[in-house]
Amino acid sequence: MAMNLIIQGKDIPTPTLKQLAKLAHADEIRAWGPQAFCLAGADARRKDAVAAQCEAQCLDWGYVPEERKLRDFGLLVMDMDSTLITIECIDEIADMLALKPQVAAITEAAMRGEIDFAESLRRRVSLLRGLQESALARVYEERLRLTGGAETLLDAAKRAGVRTLLVSGGFTYFTERLKARLTLDATAANTLEIVDGRLTGRVLGPILDAAGKAARLAEMRATLGLAAAQVVAIGDGANDLKMMAEAGVSIAFHAKPVVRAQASYALSFCTLEGVLPLLGEPGSRRAA
Q1: Do the Cβ atoms of 133 and 197 come closer than 8 Å?
Q2: Distance of CA 145 to CAs 137, 150, 239, Å?
Q3: Catalytic annotation, residues
Q4: Quick one: which of 82, 93, 186, 193 is 20 to 30 A from 52 by CA?
């Protein structure tokens, strides 16, 4: 079946594009932006050969139905830590207590799926007991940075009428501020207990884990009256897999191998702007 093969990366040489077009039996090379090209009429049965060639060249790729358009989607769901933003907030909070290596090790194990997320979160948060609430503000103001392409992706989604949901196993302190900053439609995360201006080392209420993320997606999808095929989910860790399984299109963003293996697409080299061509949205065109 003929599809559009999207190739993305920095400074893709013309000979490489021609080689991939020949490999994929594509009819035409179209420029879809400074770092994105569409190989129209590509044969999806050549997927394995294309994947091997792109991996060797450090390029992102994905087969996309020719008729797909961004406006066909109704909901974009994203993870926060190491997806919408460049940091793991809890690791940076722990750094205020010189505990970043210990907490980061637990974070990594949880993202690989080696530790139950709820238990890992309780263990990490317990290490933060006694930290002043002002440390959260420092992390937000001094260390939190948006991932490259985040605002471009969100702006394009809004123009297309796509609603946005940020779901995180992290904390409401950060998701609520990002909601206001980026005018997101909805957010869901965990709430740190704070008493007398200090963290108690506990999380209030049920922990938002993998099942919780999936449930929030399903709730908003139902509220909007959307089919699964109209939902896009982006994540990077094992805690995102259930959420991603609820979406018609799932994108593993600079993700762990277990996530890349189960996602519709994987972006390992591009910024978040690279999501748009996978949803049928060309960037600014230039000559091929």
Answers
A1: yes
A2: 13, 10, 22
A3: 79, 81
A4: 82
Question: All domains of the chain, ordered by start, with CATH?
Answer: 1-67 (3.30.70.260), 69-288 (3.40.50.1000)
How far apart, in whole angstroms, are the C-alpha atoms of residue 218 and residue 61? 28
Cα distance between residue 236 and residue 240, in whole Å = 7
pLDDT at residue 113, rounded to an integer: 80
- Distance, CA of 215 to CA of 219 (rounded, Å): 6
- Is the pLDDT confidence value at 284 over 60? no
Amino acid at 36: A
Q: What is the pLDDT of residues 150-209, one digit of tens each?
A: 999 999 999 999 999 999 999 999 999 999 999 999 999 999 999 999 999 999 999 999
| Residues near 181 by beta carbon (within 8 Å), at least 6 away in sequence | none
Model pTM above 0.90? yes
| Paired tokens of 206 | 């049920």
CA separation for the pair 230, 240 (Å, rounded): 18
- Spatial neighbors of 244 by CB under 8 A, at least 6 apart, are 233, 234, 235, 250, 252, 259, 262, 263
Query: Using CA atoms, how far apart are residues 4 and 252, in angstroms rounded to an integer?
Result: 19
Q: Over 60: is that where the pLDDT of 132 sits?
A: yes
